[in-house]
Structure formats: C-alpha cells, structure tokens
From TrEMBL:
This is Dipeptidylpeptidase IV N-terminal domain-containing protein. Pfam families: DPPIV_N. It comes from Eutreptiella gymnastica. InterPro entries: Peptidase_S9B_N, Serine_Prot_S9B/DPPIV. Residues 2-156 form the Dipeptidylpeptidase IV N-terminal domain. One of its GO terms (molecular function) is dipeptidyl-peptidase activity. One of its GO terms (biological process) is proteolysis.
Amino acid sequence: SLVVLVQNRAQTTVRLLRCNPQTGQHVVLLEETQSPWINLHQLLRPLEKTTGEAEGGFIWGSERSGYLHLYLYTQEGVLIRPLTSGAWVVDSIVGVDERYGIIYFLANKDDAMQRHCFSVSLGGGDLQRLTDQPGVHSVVVDLGSHRFIDVHSDLESCPMPSLRNLSDRSLICALPCLTDVRLRILSLRPPKLHTILTAGGTPLHGALYRPDPDV
C-alpha cells in the first residue's frame, strides 16, 4: 500500500491516506484541522518491524496540544499513546530502533534557544537526553542504532562533529572540521540572546548583533 498526506487548499486540514495503487481505493488513517493554518512536518515514520500493539503502525507528529509532539498509532489509525508532551516542540526524528522500540529525536525541551537529542520508548515513559554540551546539536543515527554523529555548535564556536556510541554516549572520535581562518582575523563578536514578552505574555526569543563601535 501507499501512504499519502493530503492538505486542503485553505491549508487548514490534513488527511493521512492509505491507498491501494492497483484499485485506487483509499482509507483515511487520520485527519487533523487547525486554524488559522496547519503546519506540515516530516515526522511520519512507519513501523515495519515492530511487533505487539504497534505492529504495522506509525509515528505521527501533531500540534493538537499547541506544541509539536509525537504520537503512536496503530496501522488502522487508532491512537495508542502520546510519546512526548509539554511546553516545548519536537524538531525532527533522527532514528527509530524498532528492535528495542526506541525513537531518537531533536527537540528544544530544556531551553527554547537550544536543540538537543533525546530518546523515548515506544511504550512511553521518561525521556533520556543524549547530548550534554549547551548549544545546538544536529544528529545522525546509524541504521543499526549503534552510533551517532553529533554536530555541535554554540555562540562561541563553529560546528564541531564527533562520532559517539549510542548506548552510553561515549566519544569514539572527533571528526575533521574545516575552519575558516578569516573568521578569526575578523574577530567577530557573538550575538547576545534575549527574550522579550509580548503584550499577551508570549515569550519571543531573539539574537542581538551589536555593530562594532569603532567602524
């Protein structure tokens, strides 16, 4: 079968369809509506090897709570359980280990201006944070879910890649990183992070780049 995501022209409703390419027939697995629009995402993950209640099911991302989180569904589109929740958002899924029922994802759970890698069981439970250094992390998990590449950066340093064990997060080796000597010559100052509140109490996060007073 073929799974298709369809959005209406008003961009307020999405439908996840399971289609039969030979007959053209389809079944609606789920439908979500949100105003003033619904955001598209890349958080759909089919579970092809999982057994038990989620056999043949899938992972889905939704902003139904006001924040983008992960949900586990059966193959018929019945919600089994939410996998994540809280006043933070999931950024992307970077790996799914169906053998042990673990999903790896990036999120801003602990700080809205940082991004870290977390894991959670498909059976639910507490999250485990896999990255420690403050800043922004981009992660790639290998197909066997044994190792991961972590590219870390912050306001004071350029992106630094490393190869780590997934089981205990221990460092295997630092990976080559190209640096531009012109950046050191320019002596650029990092921005200052700020958070301001709107009249309605919504926090807005930003970075302030101050000009060089001597230029």
